[in-house]
Amino acid sequence: MTTPPIRVLICEDQALVRAGYITIFSAQPDMDVIGEAADGRAAVEAARRLRPDVVVMDIRMPILDGIEATRQLAGPDTASPAKVLVVTTFNVDEYVYEALKAGASGFLLKDAPPLELVNGVRTIARGDSLLAPAVTRTLIGHFAERLRPADTSRPARDEIVRALTRRELEVLEQLAAGLSNAEIAATLFITPETVKTYVSRILTKLDLRDRVQAVVLAYRVGLVPGAD
User: Fold this and answer.
1) Any bridge partners for residue 106, and if so which?
2) Which of 15, 62, 68, 131 is the most buried (most CB within 10 A)?
3) pTM over cut 0.85
4) What is the per-residue pLDDT across 63-78, written as a single tens digit (0 to 9) for each?
5) CA dihedral 9, 12, 16, 21 (to 10 degrees)
6) What range does the domain containing 29 cover?
Protein backbone atom coordinates (compact mmCIF):
# COMPACT_ATOMS: atom_id res chain seq x y z
CA MET A 1 0.00 0.00 0.00
CA THR A 2 1.47 3.34 -1.06
CA THR A 3 1.82 5.97 1.65
CA PRO A 4 0.17 9.24 0.61
CA PRO A 5 2.51 12.22 0.25
CA ILE A 6 2.91 14.76 3.05
CA ARG A 7 0.69 17.73 2.20
CA VAL A 8 2.60 20.95 2.89
CA LEU A 9 1.34 24.53 3.10
CA ILE A 10 3.98 27.27 2.72
CA CYS A 11 3.37 30.54 4.63
CA GLU A 12 6.07 33.11 3.88
CA ASP A 13 5.75 36.76 2.87
CA GLN A 14 8.97 36.98 0.84
CA ALA A 15 8.21 35.74 -2.67
CA LEU A 16 11.73 34.49 -3.39
CA VAL A 17 11.97 32.56 -0.12
CA ARG A 18 8.50 31.14 -0.65
CA ALA A 19 9.44 30.03 -4.16
CA GLY A 20 12.57 28.39 -2.78
CA TYR A 21 10.56 26.40 -0.25
CA ILE A 22 8.13 25.30 -2.94
CA THR A 23 11.01 24.12 -5.13
CA ILE A 24 12.63 22.19 -2.27
CA PHE A 25 9.48 20.43 -1.11
CA SER A 26 8.07 19.78 -4.57
CA ALA A 27 11.28 17.94 -5.45
CA GLN A 28 10.65 15.38 -2.68
CA PRO A 29 8.87 12.20 -3.79
CA ASP A 30 7.01 11.99 -0.49
CA MET A 31 5.77 15.59 -0.38
CA ASP A 32 3.14 17.66 -2.12
CA VAL A 33 2.93 21.45 -1.81
CA ILE A 34 -0.82 22.07 -1.74
CA GLY A 35 -0.83 25.82 -1.24
CA GLU A 36 0.98 28.99 -0.28
CA ALA A 37 0.21 32.17 1.63
CA ALA A 38 1.95 35.55 1.80
CA ASP A 39 0.38 36.84 5.04
CA GLY A 40 -0.88 35.41 8.30
CA ARG A 41 -4.57 35.83 7.66
CA ALA A 42 -4.27 34.05 4.31
CA ALA A 43 -2.24 31.33 6.05
CA VAL A 44 -5.02 30.66 8.57
CA GLU A 45 -7.68 30.64 5.86
CA ALA A 46 -5.64 28.33 3.60
CA ALA A 47 -4.82 25.92 6.43
CA ARG A 48 -8.44 25.63 7.47
CA ARG A 49 -9.55 25.14 3.88
CA LEU A 50 -6.82 22.76 2.68
CA ARG A 51 -6.10 20.81 5.90
CA PRO A 52 -2.36 20.31 5.25
CA ASP A 53 -0.30 17.74 7.13
CA VAL A 54 2.32 20.38 7.96
CA VAL A 55 2.22 24.18 7.86
CA VAL A 56 5.61 25.82 7.30
CA MET A 57 5.19 29.19 9.00
CA ASP A 58 7.27 32.35 8.94
CA ILE A 59 6.90 34.55 12.02
CA ARG A 60 7.17 38.04 10.58
CA MET A 61 4.31 38.40 8.13
CA PRO A 62 1.90 41.26 7.30
CA ILE A 63 -1.75 41.59 8.38
CA LEU A 64 -1.44 38.78 10.94
CA ASP A 65 1.93 37.66 12.27
CA GLY A 66 3.01 34.05 12.37
CA ILE A 67 2.60 33.79 16.14
CA GLU A 68 -1.08 34.70 16.09
CA ALA A 69 -1.62 32.60 12.97
CA THR A 70 -0.03 29.65 14.78
CA ARG A 71 -2.17 30.26 17.85
CA GLN A 72 -5.33 30.24 15.74
CA LEU A 73 -4.28 27.02 14.01
CA ALA A 74 -2.64 25.10 16.85
CA GLY A 75 -3.38 26.87 20.12
CA PRO A 76 -4.83 25.24 23.25
CA ASP A 77 -8.37 26.22 22.30
CA THR A 78 -8.13 24.63 18.86
CA ALA A 79 -10.30 21.55 18.38
CA SER A 80 -8.10 19.99 15.69
CA PRO A 81 -4.66 21.63 16.01
CA ALA A 82 -2.52 21.86 12.91
CA LYS A 83 1.11 20.78 12.87
CA VAL A 84 3.14 23.97 12.47
CA LEU A 85 6.86 24.19 11.73
CA VAL A 86 8.13 27.70 12.44
CA VAL A 87 11.05 28.80 10.30
CA THR A 88 12.72 31.95 11.59
CA THR A 89 15.78 34.17 11.47
CA PHE A 90 17.23 34.10 15.00
CA ASN A 91 18.98 37.47 14.82
CA VAL A 92 15.78 39.16 13.69
CA ASP A 93 12.99 37.24 15.39
CA GLU A 94 12.69 37.48 19.16
CA TYR A 95 9.31 35.81 19.27
CA VAL A 96 10.06 32.13 18.74
CA TYR A 97 9.29 31.32 22.37
CA GLU A 98 5.87 32.90 21.95
CA ALA A 99 5.32 30.81 18.81
CA LEU A 100 6.09 27.64 20.75
CA LYS A 101 3.63 28.68 23.46
CA ALA A 102 1.12 29.31 20.67
CA GLY A 103 1.28 25.66 19.68
CA ALA A 104 4.06 25.28 17.11
CA SER A 105 5.39 21.72 16.85
CA GLY A 106 8.94 22.93 16.32
CA PHE A 107 11.24 25.42 14.70
CA LEU A 108 14.25 25.70 12.44
CA LEU A 109 16.41 28.60 11.37
CA LYS A 110 15.99 29.94 7.86
CA ASP A 111 19.61 29.20 7.03
CA ALA A 112 19.13 25.49 7.78
CA PRO A 113 20.28 23.25 4.90
CA PRO A 114 17.47 22.05 2.60
CA LEU A 115 17.83 18.47 3.83
CA GLU A 116 17.36 19.60 7.44
CA LEU A 117 14.25 21.52 6.44
CA VAL A 118 12.83 18.55 4.54
CA ASN A 119 13.56 16.16 7.41
CA GLY A 120 11.99 18.64 9.81
CA VAL A 121 8.72 18.51 7.89
CA ARG A 122 8.87 14.69 7.86
CA THR A 123 9.49 14.64 11.61
CA ILE A 124 6.50 16.81 12.39
CA ALA A 125 4.26 15.03 9.86
CA ARG A 126 4.70 11.72 11.65
CA GLY A 127 3.63 13.28 14.94
CA ASP A 128 6.97 14.04 16.55
CA SER A 129 8.11 17.49 17.62
CA LEU A 130 11.20 19.22 16.32
CA LEU A 131 13.59 20.95 18.66
CA ALA A 132 17.03 20.88 17.12
CA PRO A 133 19.25 20.53 20.22
CA ALA A 134 21.89 23.07 19.20
CA VAL A 135 19.26 25.63 18.28
CA THR A 136 17.31 24.96 21.47
CA ARG A 137 20.35 25.64 23.64
CA THR A 138 21.08 28.91 21.86
CA LEU A 139 17.54 30.17 21.49
CA ILE A 140 16.03 29.17 24.82
CA GLY A 141 19.23 30.22 26.57
CA HIS A 142 18.86 33.65 24.97
CA PHE A 143 15.45 34.01 26.62
CA ALA A 144 16.35 32.33 29.93
CA GLU A 145 15.99 35.45 32.04
CA ARG A 146 12.63 36.28 30.49
CA LEU A 147 11.36 32.74 31.05
CA ARG A 148 12.41 32.33 34.65
CA PRO A 149 9.34 32.12 36.85
CA ALA A 150 7.90 34.63 39.24
CA ASP A 151 6.98 33.42 42.73
CA THR A 152 3.40 32.89 41.54
CA SER A 153 4.65 30.03 39.35
CA ARG A 154 5.84 27.96 42.29
CA PRO A 155 2.54 26.13 42.92
CA ALA A 156 2.61 24.96 39.30
CA ARG A 157 6.15 23.76 39.81
CA ASP A 158 5.16 21.88 42.97
CA GLU A 159 2.31 20.16 41.12
CA ILE A 160 4.71 18.97 38.42
CA VAL A 161 7.19 17.70 41.00
CA ARG A 162 4.43 15.71 42.65
CA ALA A 163 3.15 14.33 39.34
CA LEU A 164 6.49 13.04 38.05
CA THR A 165 8.95 10.52 39.39
CA ARG A 166 12.51 11.58 40.16
CA ARG A 167 13.78 10.03 36.92
CA GLU A 168 11.00 11.69 34.89
CA LEU A 169 11.98 15.05 36.37
CA GLU A 170 15.59 14.41 35.38
CA VAL A 171 14.52 13.62 31.81
CA LEU A 172 12.35 16.76 31.68
CA GLU A 173 15.27 18.89 32.86
CA GLN A 174 17.48 17.42 30.15
CA LEU A 175 14.79 18.06 27.53
CA ALA A 176 14.62 21.69 28.60
CA ALA A 177 18.40 21.95 28.30
CA GLY A 178 18.06 21.05 24.62
CA LEU A 179 19.41 17.51 24.69
CA SER A 180 18.29 14.93 22.16
CA ASN A 181 17.08 11.50 23.28
CA ALA A 182 20.49 10.01 22.52
CA GLU A 183 22.24 12.71 24.57
CA ILE A 184 19.82 12.26 27.47
CA ALA A 185 20.45 8.52 27.36
CA ALA A 186 24.20 9.06 27.55
CA THR A 187 23.86 11.58 30.38
CA LEU A 188 21.56 9.42 32.50
CA PHE A 189 23.16 6.08 31.54
CA ILE A 190 19.97 4.62 30.06
CA THR A 191 18.98 3.58 26.54
CA PRO A 192 17.39 5.94 23.98
CA GLU A 193 14.33 3.66 23.97
CA THR A 194 13.99 4.15 27.71
CA VAL A 195 14.25 7.91 27.26
CA LYS A 196 11.48 7.77 24.67
CA THR A 197 9.31 5.90 27.16
CA TYR A 198 9.98 8.48 29.87
CA VAL A 199 9.18 11.34 27.49
CA SER A 200 5.89 9.68 26.58
CA ARG A 201 5.01 9.29 30.27
CA ILE A 202 5.88 12.93 30.97
CA LEU A 203 3.65 14.16 28.16
CA THR A 204 0.77 11.97 29.31
CA LYS A 205 1.03 12.93 32.99
CA LEU A 206 1.30 16.67 32.27
CA ASP A 207 -1.31 16.58 29.47
CA LEU A 208 1.15 17.98 26.92
CA ARG A 209 1.03 17.45 23.16
CA ASP A 210 4.73 17.16 22.44
CA ARG A 211 8.22 17.83 23.75
CA VAL A 212 8.08 21.44 22.59
CA GLN A 213 5.32 22.09 25.10
CA ALA A 214 7.33 20.21 27.72
CA VAL A 215 10.32 22.51 27.19
CA VAL A 216 8.15 25.62 27.38
CA LEU A 217 6.50 24.40 30.58
CA ALA A 218 9.82 23.48 32.17
CA TYR A 219 11.10 27.02 31.64
CA ARG A 220 7.88 28.65 32.74
CA VAL A 221 7.96 26.93 36.13
CA GLY A 222 11.72 26.91 36.64
CA LEU A 223 12.46 23.22 36.17
CA VAL A 224 15.71 23.97 34.40
CA PRO A 225 19.22 23.27 35.73
CA GLY A 226 20.77 26.56 36.80
CA ALA A 227 17.59 28.58 36.34
CA ASP A 228 17.23 29.41 40.01
Assistant:
1) 85, 130
2) 131
3) no
4) 999 999 999 999 878 8
5) -30
6) 6-131
